[in-house]
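FW: tagging you since you asked about this chain on Friday. Here's the raw sequence from the shared folder, copied in full. Didn't touch anything.
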Amino acid sequence: MTLWRTVVRDAFLIIVGSLIFAVGVDVFEIPYGLAAGGVTGLATVFSAIADGLGVFLPVGLQTIAMNVLLLALVVRSGDRGYIARTVAGILACGFFTDALVPFLPAVGGENDLLLCALWGGIITGVGLGLVFRTGGNTGGTDIVSQLLARRTGMPVGTAVIIVDGVIIAFSATVFSIEQALYAAVAMFICGKVIDAVVDGPRSARAAYIISTEHEKIANEILYTLNRGCTELQARGVWSGNSRPVLLCVLGRSESMRLKQIVAGIDPDAIVIISEVHEVFGEGFRQIGGS
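HL: got it, structure written out here
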């Protein structure tokens, strides 16, 4: 893919993803006090506090201001492409979040918080997932989480849960505990949808096969299943004997056929099948594909 096509594709995904994200938060989350973590959740809380004081404080404008401060922490990375895509994501999400408010209805109600959490999480997850597919992000608490993980040595995922959990807990003091719990549901769903959008639905299977009949099994995989097969050299710790391990990557629908092949040759073979989200190369997608 040429450079200009990549730039156009990334710009399109960032704009569309930011637009979808804004629809999710404006329709299902902000009107009902669902501060589902992140900078947007924090801005939702501050906006509600300001509204109680008679001051109008736009959520989108807040997210841009907060992210500008946080972005200063990652500028040192030196990756200009990443920084450009992140800045674009921050500006687009913040702009659309405020710009779409007059045109979007608030769907649901105080008695339908579960509906709002479900659809808010799904729609915002789709939007953010499209932005993340470009290799950038929308800034926010991910930056803080990465710094916290680096300073403390904890896993990044744990740091994200802690940072967003603090924001959701803070929102309970402004809205209600019930709204905070539903916000946590929206945050969880959003994360799952992001993973699905970024990784894509094209999951495959990786099979590891340990058998004394490895040659026959490999031959059947190659010529009956029409899949490549790699022989890995391994050694049993207890027996000390060397025994090859076959590695085969195949589509979801082919895993049952593989088990039938192995069972027909060596019913005592050890077969380990795991799911992989992305596979590139011959017989699968090209590594440059989206």
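FW: DSSP finds ten helices and four strands in the chain.
HL: agreed, and Residues 3-29 form the longest helix (27 residues).
FW: great, closing this out.
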